[in-house]
Amino acid sequence: NVFVVSLALADLVVALYPYPLILVALFHNGWSLGETHCKASGFVMGLSVIGSIFNITAIAINRYCYVCHSFAYNKVYSWWNTMLYVCLIWVLTVVATVPNFFVGSLKYDHRIYSCTFTQTASSCYTITVVVIHFILPITIVSFCYLRIWILVIRVRKKVKSELKLKLKPSDFRNFLTMFVVFVIFAFCWAPLNLIGLAVAINPSEIAPKIPEWLFVVSYFMAYFNSCLNAIIYGLLNQNFRKEYKQILMSLWTPALFFQNTSKAGTEIQTSKPSPALNNNDQTHTNTL
């Protein structure tokens, strides 16, 4: 839950500062807010983008440990360790974004009416960004979810009937939700990253050949991803649907909101590690 909140924060950041400035640029048909706001909005947008993929990667690792190494999960993901991991995610996000100021890659792009990362500023830095922001996280997340899928398939097909160790339906639904979040992220961000990688290889020749419409579509497709996560949660997770409904009802009846909040404070839910099969515990099953 802490990682999901951190991911939501990364998605929300762009709506609080960069997007309103983009609207101003649209109304004025150009950037009129000065260089400081341009650099700042580009930096915040970078924090949101890199923070999102780092949080998605952390969630995948968390799900991998929870399902495939459940007996060690509580030790690895204690409350303080989890908060430390979240802080580390944002420290790495800032470290990955700050170099933009040194290579001069945060500039206004008239095609998208926003100050953002310029792919032609530095070929080496663009390739580094694509590797750190896209290729490496996608590889890690793919590995984690692949191992989870393999375990789920083995549990369903080969586990002995006398064993009670099964993946709970709620655990599987949570895993499926985050897996869909990852797939949609990869789909939305792949075009822009592939364009950036192609431009970085030979900026002078390839950059002029990229159609303007293709870049604009890939750009807004990538940043539209920040709006999709909440929709995915609502479609695939019953708890989110219930809370969405409660929030909407509370907007009409504020008294109901405070009443439900007071009730929630008296209800304490405990979470236990998933009884999923642990691939390190071969004494309990012959499936791994």
TrEMBL record:
It is found in: Cell membrane. Residues 267-288 are annotated as: Disordered. The keyword Ribonucleoprotein does not apply. GO terms for cellular component: plasma membrane. The chain crosses the membrane at residues 7-28, 40-61, 82-105, 125-153, 174-201, 213-236. It is a multi-pass membrane protein. The keyword Cell membrane applies. It comes from the Eukaryota. Keywords: Cell membrane, Disulfide bond, G-protein coupled receptor, Membrane, Receptor, Transducer, Transmembrane, Transmembrane helix. GO terms for molecular function: melatonin receptor activity. Residues 1-233 form the G-protein coupled receptors family 1 profile domain. Gene3D superfamilies: Rhodopsin 7-helix transmembrane proteins. Its main location: membrane. PANTHER family: B2 BRADYKININ RECEPTOR/ANGIOTENSIN II RECEPTOR (PTHR24228), MELATONIN RECEPTOR TYPE 1B (PTHR24228:SF54). Belongs to the G-protein coupled receptor 1 family. This is LOW QUALITY PROTEIN: melatonin receptor type 1B. The lineage of its organism: Eukaryota, Metazoa, Chordata, Craniata, Vertebrata.
